[in-house]
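Model: You mentioned two targets. I'll fold them one after the other.
Researcher: Yes, keep them separate.
Model: Target one:
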Amino acid sequence: MNEYKIYELKAGLKLHHIKTDKFKTVSVGLHFHRPLRYEEASKNALLTDVMRRGNQKLQDAASVSRYLQALYGAAFHADVRRKGEDQILSYVVSTVADSYLPEKEATTFQAVSFLYDMVLCPLVENGAFRQDYVEQEKVNLINDIKAQINDKRAYAVWRLVEEMCKNEPYSIYELGRVSDVEAITPESLYAQYLTVLHESPIDIFVTGDADIDRVIDLTKKRFAEVTPKVTEYPKSTLHSAADEVRELVETYDVSQAKLSIGFYTGITPVDDEYSALMVYNSIFGSGAHSKLFNHVREKLSLCYYASSRLERYKGMMVVSSGIEYQNKEKAETEILAQAEAMRQGDISDYEFDVSVKSIVNSLRSLGDTGGYMADYYLGQAVSGTSISLEEQCELIQKVTKDDVIRVAQRIKPELVYVMKGQEAE
């Protein structure tokens, strides 16, 4: 049985406890929320890379690794991601729950203390991060940014989103730009750390069977001097619908062309229609039961793959497909025809029923993994909603076919993006 509680320790600092005895581990994640913008995106990405290398007590990766091994093989990782236009710096430690250890050792308390040391006591020398760590991680981050283009399927979708949201923060890659990374110094990175620490809303998620009162007491003591000046999460602006459908064709070194289509939905998680939109997306292109899979891919063989996903914080939907370039017009026509079919109410009982069950099963499966469960509730916090997993399942099960058809009326194509190979010139 899961129990979810939120403790507001002070303005801008919340501790979330997902109490469950389903897992033998306890996971504790600390998340800073920053507005997604060019002037700090790369700094935030580099921060997590540099800070995971060590702290004032454990000054290198080897020392960190030995300490974690002594905590029965505890694990620690740090990274950045985005939810809408919120760039989130995450530091997460997981360890064996105390109840499974000899004489119920207080490993959870030690793991949380370690996490707070990593975040609050970074390895700093003379008002700057270590020069060698910064330079090494800059090289790694630059390589990661450049490697984005290597996965052409994902990169085609990114280019579509980037173009749809041009001049919006949502078009900023969460790792930033190479030129911005190159300009970072150990001093400027430490200045960014202080900004993040003192000017960001903070969420701490504890997932598992933990002595939450002891964790709260420790958190209050360790964060006594940290009072975030900014207490509201960065808000994502709803994408504005375009007046007409545009097309963008780009040439890359690919043997299989990519066709991506961006749709305006105008619906985000705070809207009552969001559950119906989830069902719409499932029927349209999410899974082997969907119209895109069965009609465009299987029946007509126009795509090697075809699927849709929601950009939930922006009110957008994206279709991704792999095609032979000569089939571009036919594939585009058939993808749009399936959207039109849904507007006309062409939804079978099978498509509807399987879609609802698929979503409910996917949601319930999140409860089988502590990290996924914490991420779900972190998303709820960011979007300004407070719907439990089970409540979301109930909302999905209440959706009717008429609800889906009404949602379908609001969805319209906006941008067609094509990635073609040199031979298609």
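Model: Target two:
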Amino acid sequence: MLLAIDIGNTNIEFGVFSGKEMIASFRLGTNRDITSDEVGLFTSQFFQESGLDRHDIDDIIIASVVPQVMYSITNAVKKYFYNKVPLVVGDNLPFPIENLYDNPKDVGADRLVAAIAAYHKYGGPLIVVDFGTATTFDAISQSGQYLGGAIFPGIKISMDALFSNTAKLPRVELVRPDRVIGTNTVTSMQSGAIYGYVGAVKNIVHEMSLELGGNPKVVATGGLAKMVGDETNLFIAIDRTLTLDGLYLIYNQNA
């Protein structure tokens, strides 16, 4: 079995693969001060409650955009998975994709891994929209090249900034109000957040589509993908396991 770990700014996601099938997954909130024992004990508890045996893990593959937690994660897997040395994409494992960024090392590992999985599953040309801490838009060519993309503040970051930098605006739940014209502060903020954010996503996808030649496929992933998907018909798929699937593909291609 393979343990795939995606370390993002908000969450650390774990996926257990048996053959081609992901048989279990779980997540931890990303805490830059987390210790290797905290990671190991939580992982051990999950394996036990899922009826899985850590001895059955043959390899471990990691993608990370948070260098501060890599020491704890790598030490946890060595300690709790019987001295397994993890494979780290972009470090001791190459990305099997042609990267046309001006400086290829500037692209987050999660963006490349998701691009690899999306191209494998859906073909190109393609736009991958990842609704994470930041919302990223990544363009993949017809032949599978990573072309670049756009980075936009995530909706939660935007709302936190609004709350933190104004005296009277409250924190509000991210739900779509019935009308765009809000009749109180809460619904006005919800309207601006939801409709404004969806509008920004639509416009960025539209402009990127024109540059890609007209009609690329658009795939969404990440925590708020369903919320945006409910408000638009942009996406051919909402694929919540895209990055973990990409790690499995990279592992197989390098096995």
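Researcher: Noted. Anything on target two?
Model: The mean pLDDT is 90.
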